Hints:
This is ABC-type quaternary amine transporter. This protein is of the alpha/beta class.
Amino acid sequence: MRMITFDGVTKRYADGTVAVDHLSLEVPTGEITVFVGPSGCGKTTSLRMINRMIDATEGRILLDGVDVKTIDPPTLRRGIGYVIQQAGLFPHRKIVDNVATVPHLLGWDRKKARDRAMELLERVGLDLKLADRYPFQLSGGQQQRVGVARALAADPPVLLMDEPFSAVDPIVRASLQEELLRLQAELNKTIVFVTHDIDEAVKLGDRVAVLRVGGHLAQLDAPSTLLARPADDFVREFLGRDRGIRRLSFVTDEGVRLRTDLTVPASAEISSVRDTAEPWLAVVDEENRPLGWVSVKDLPESGTLADARPAPYGTFVRGRDSLRAALDATLLSPSRSAIAVDDSGRVEGVATREALDEALDKVAGGAGA
Ligand SMILES: Nc1ncnc2c1ncn2[C@@H]1O[C@H](COP(=O)(O)OP(=O)(O)OP(=O)(O)O)[C@@H](O)[C@H]1O
């Protein structure tokens, strides 16, 4: 249990700058809440008020109903992991010692702290051969993983992450995001994640708080709702281009009707399919895995479908992928239909363009668009 409540929180700095203005919102237990917004909108200030690196001028921040101002900062921070950009590792300590620092401070003996550190490094996907190196001997992405491991060391229920993945290249960034989602599925921490990147926000957030300059909350919603129904022009603009398409990432493929009459085994005689009215057929192997598309009018005179050269195909995983993935699969297939497979890659059926159009109509209808 660790729910965070902002109750009319204002931060006015000494020079009069109002960084956050009467912010009220709830960060639910066990979820990732992302604070996103343009530079200077008060994201970092809001985050740091939670662990009292900055104290609010007005209002209250409650942790499970207890005002953080009544908890002394060291005690408070013991229950709150903190990850920042460029990891902020101690440069003169080995990787394993960086992670073991907090358990050590908590009074664990050396071996137990070290074991815990190794376990966490493994968990965040770091090659354990790197444990005895120093931070400067690691890549930016590796250092970030260590930063996450260190924040998790005391097993805090709350994790604050301030632009943790901003300093690494897009590919490493994507893998760190995946890793965080994988970890979170196991750990269920209450996470507040700050970013200025809206794509990162909708990918990671269970809920996304969009802030505007001056620390005003513009909208707080699940990513799919945010993309479907931005509250105003500011949010719409901040979400950027391709909002409609991006939204399809959050729509499951479940509603898409599949046809099962468009697949044929590679062992079938060509003569048996020549008279079909369908222009394209999906060929499958004996285990019902896709081999590709064949154009019926271009089939050889005789033989089996194994003798026809199947063209490349796109697939999506039924029940797991989004409508966006299904649509993408159609673009990778000459038939413009997508092959639906199960988790083990066996064909469940074919989603035709008509079936996808129907599904898209339902989404557009439901958006109030
Ligand atoms: N110590 C300070 N004294 C005065 N003003 C400050 C101080 N720290 C931050 N500010 C101002 O408060 C506002 C919010 O800053 P904050 O760092 O919270 O924004 P942010 O949304 O995290 O920005 P960024 O994405 O650029 O990091 C900005 O206008 C900033 O200039």
